[in-house]
Amino acid sequence: DRKENLHFESKAVHGALGTEPLTGAVSMPIFQAVTYRHPALGESTGFAYSRLENPTRQELERTMAILEGGIKAFAFSSGQAANMAVFSLLNPGDHVLLSDDIYGGTFRIIGDVFGKYGIEHSYVEMDDLDAVKAAIKPNTKMFFVETPTNPMMKVADIAVLSEIAKSVGALMVVDNTFLTPYFQNPLKLGADIVTHSSTKYLGGHNDTLSGIVVVKDNEEIAEKIHIHIKSHGSQLAPMDCWLLLRGIKTLPVRMDRHNENAKKVAEWLRTQPKVKKVYYVGFEDHKDYATTIKQTRGFGGMISFTVDSFETVQKILRNVDMIMFAESLGGTETLITYPTTQTHEDTPKDVKEKLGITDCFLRMSVGIENVEDIIADLDRAMNS
């Protein structure tokens, strides 16, 4: 297949089929159909019912499998639904190791939902390999790793952790939401499964709730995820699949701009008297910088920072103008979030404090606007 030899940017634009074969439509149509007519008994077009397969969703899933380098991808109604499917691979009595600094929704799924089904879990600092090895139990069946983490920007060595997971017969799962396959390819580094809240950078326009799971090479795991999505009915609707396909076409150019802008904003934040600490994986003095350089091609658009007082937090959130005080990340617009009461509301207070998610902590998703306007808005909101 000639497409195999294309560079990432070209694969993102052209997808799997790319065009619709019957009409030659260069934008894959939205197949807003529930059921499909069969030619005769025992004959099929390959489609029967949209909960099972839909042509628009199939194009998205095949495109994501190509971009992440897996055998099969699945498109879900949200990132939470995607993670639910992955954790459903565990059986009662199994143990899962998770990044200690993880998205609050993942914290809720594994504690509140799966805890009552007899699945054990432990949180560990994934960039501390001794701590990881010490946390492994005889029943550890999965490592669930965010890298970089949300919101403390810790970085885990995917290749090394994949080796450790393999050595104990555990699955290695990586949430690749922050960097996307454009900057980071966990499956090529040894991971078994990649998940995304594709609501974020893959969609990229703050208009589509969605999740993606990509399986590297294990047909049995792919079949289990397929049965989950078929049974739970948590698949992504055709219109949302189309919006995601459209978003992916510009993923490389958007990620380049997010990357470029975030570096400048992070450097500017470090010069500000009211800013006490900036968490950004692109700083050469970030403790995991060597790992980042080894396994990624970019730093992404995410920054967290601590300011001098709760009053400064209130001032920034009240006064930003072009920048928006809103949850989520990864869209074209710059968003600023207060993790303590928003993204990490469900994370227990003592865990938040241990991680550094305090009342003076902010997270920023740097958009693709002109970087001078982003900095000027922040400056006015914080210092005027």
Description:
The structure is a single chain. It contains 14 helices and twelve strands. The protein is α/β, with parallel strands linked by helices and 384 residues long. A seven-stranded mixed beta sheet has the order 1-7-6-5-4-2-3, with helices on both faces. A five-stranded mixed beta sheet has the order 8-9-12-11-10. Helix 3 crosses helix 4 and helix 12 crosses helix 14. It is globular. The model has no long low-confidence stretch (mean pLDDT 95).
Q: From the alpha-carbon coordinates, what is the Rg to the nearest angstrom? A: 21 Å
Our count of helices gives 14
Strand order of the largest sheet: 1-7-6-5-4-2-3
Instruction: State the low-pLDDT regions, or none.
Output: none
Structural class: alpha/beta
Helix and strand pattern: HHEHEHEHEHEHEEHHHEHEHEEHEH
Principal-axis shape equals globular
Biggest pleated-sheet summary: 7 strands, mixed
Q: For this entry, what is the oligomeric state of its chains? A: single chain
